[in-house]
Amino acid sequence: MSLSCVELSLDLLEACFAHALTAEAEEVMGLLLGDVSEAAGAGPGGGESTARIWALSFQQRIDKRPDRVEVGPEQLAAATQAAEDHGQRTGKRTRVIGWYHSHPHITVLPSHVDVQTQGSFQMLDSGFVGLIFSCFCAGAAQHEKRLQASAFQAFAVGGGRFERRLVPLRFVATPRQGARLGELMPALTRVQLAEQQHAFEAAAERLRRLGAEAGGAHGPALESARLHHASLFAAAVTHHLGTTGAALVQATHDRLRASQKRVGSLERERDALLLNGEETSPQGAEQ
Length: 287
Description:
Layout: E1 2-9, H1 10-20, E2 29-38, E3 48-58, H2 73-90, E4 95-104, H3 112-124, E5 129-138, E6 145-158, E7 161-167, E8 169-172, H4 181-214, H5 219-279, H6 282-286
Parallel strand pairs: 1-3, 1-8, 4-5
Antiparallel strand pairs: 2-3, 2-4, 5-6, 6-7
């Protein structure tokens, strides 16, 4: 199935960039929940369709890498269950239709590995789509930081290889069944805290084994190492809370400005209607 367009709600756009900005040294990822609507006359084997995304499943990273992410069967199963739960709550058919990941300090275009991963997904679901969120890239002015997003699919070129095909990405108002930023940010925070907790506990276990093997020796050094890891854990948690909190504050300011503009527009419309009513009233006609 060849996608002609991908629609992403504005709340999800902010949530994905907030997720991407939590890690500057490694890529982060998640799964996209929504549905694909086939174009009129499109058969099951082809035709152009639109992927509409209205919810996310943030994924916890166990193995953090600077240049790639992986999606395991357990993650897909959990995201599938989350999609079913979302569909039951909203009454709108919802399923896993794609994945997203970040590109810190590099181009928004998919890499060779990204394209091969996407091709593997599309062998299972031809309508599957990939999104990339590029961040921490300097703009024309050194103080500028560009945020970019792209959507892509893959097509087979033979020999088990795939090439990329960019898909137009459109940002739309959050639909009735869509997830809101207020519920997405706490979910992201829980995933980020679980990642940091896992890393801290793994480091603590390594230190415990080292202490047991040393038979009590190097006690001060091991204690310093424990304090060091505890400080890193606290700093990481503070950073993640600050990032997600800043996203919520910015979203609140954006909604406030939008609401103020809407109120101003409605007030002008009201005044125009009142003025027209006075001009067409019987009293006005007699005068």
